[in-house]
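Thread title: Can someone regenerate the structure for this chain?

I was given the following input by a collaborator and told the matching structure tokens would be attached. They weren't. Posting the sequence so someone can regenerate them.
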Amino acid sequence: MNPALARLRLRLTLWYGGVFTLILALLGGGIFLAVRHQLARQLDASLRTATAALQRAARIREVERARATGPVVDAVTELHIPDRELYLLDGDGVPVAPPVAPDWIRAAARRVTSGNAATLDVNVPGGREVRLHAERFSGGSGTSYLAVALADRVELEDRYASLIEVFVAAALVALLLVAGGGYVLVRQSTAPVERSMEQMRRFMADAAHELRTPVTLLRTRADVALGQERAAERDAETLRAVGREAERIGAIVGDLLTLARADAGERPAARETLYLDDQAADAVESIRALAQRAGVALEVGAFEEAPVTGDPVLVRRLLLILLENAVKFTPPGGHVRLDVAVRDGQRAVVISDTGPGIAPADLPHVFERFYRGESARQGTEGAGLGLAIARWIADLHDARIDIQSSPGDGTRVAVSFPSL
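Best answer:
Regenerated them for you:
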């Protein structure tokens, strides 16, 4: 794996994890505050409920004491609410039930004015912290009382700590899942980048390899010519050879520039109505001289009128590339046939030859840049860029190129354009 890409994947995964952790921390903090506030409200509500029950018990106590002639059950003393401490004090803060109350409860009670209620956090001697709710009320006889209910805040803290533990455990699991899932997503998202980098590396290596040979030949011929005495005939031959190599370099550089512009989207296709049969006829005439020099018969078969929408310059180049390849790979005495037909709404140009065919292993790679199969390497010139350009032109026109070939049986290339 490319070290730079590996570092990129690690950084992206860390970013995923970091952003998720930040979101989780902010969300968790908000949830904790909301839950803490809600738990505190629930605790205060339970304390208010307890003081209300204590007030009812105090009024019952007054009624029973007024009516009874003997001992009666003290409703206040009998009142019991789990996890709540209850105190009933008179208007002056003197304990009524139970008969003894800590000084800190009496001090807190004095802070409650007539007709009011108060909820306080009180630090009790010994390090204990309690939540206290006190309400001043009047009994049936008009006597002023103070109802006090309190609960340990440790109850609230225990529930809060339990919530934190559960959330932290869930957050850790989620973080691990996000880290793993993030890494998988990063690998998936950077896979095209990795392939592009690999293709670019191979592209540059192949380009350097293809250009190195003609450049070396140019340099060698120049060095040899410089070391010889001047002779008009020999110098002319050397210059012609240099011109051929320079032309080859120019062709490769031109194709590279075309593909570079294609990759950058700098060569949009014109959109106008054109006729494939006219473009094919023009391409056949341009290739005919090449076919004659190669000893290959160039035939034209079906020639139906086939209007399409596209760029005339690019469509002509596409057909020239395919015809030139067919002629170049057909041995002397063979023939190349071109047909233009309209079938099922598709406009198709079909080019077939009697060449050696393409090996099955090479077929999936013929459109790759600089790829040249075994038959292409033997006795033919070219850098392996033509079909890559042809594929780009076809894609630009929403056309499809299908190649059928087998060793010894020639090759059939069909280019199908969509209907208007």
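The mean pLDDT is 79.
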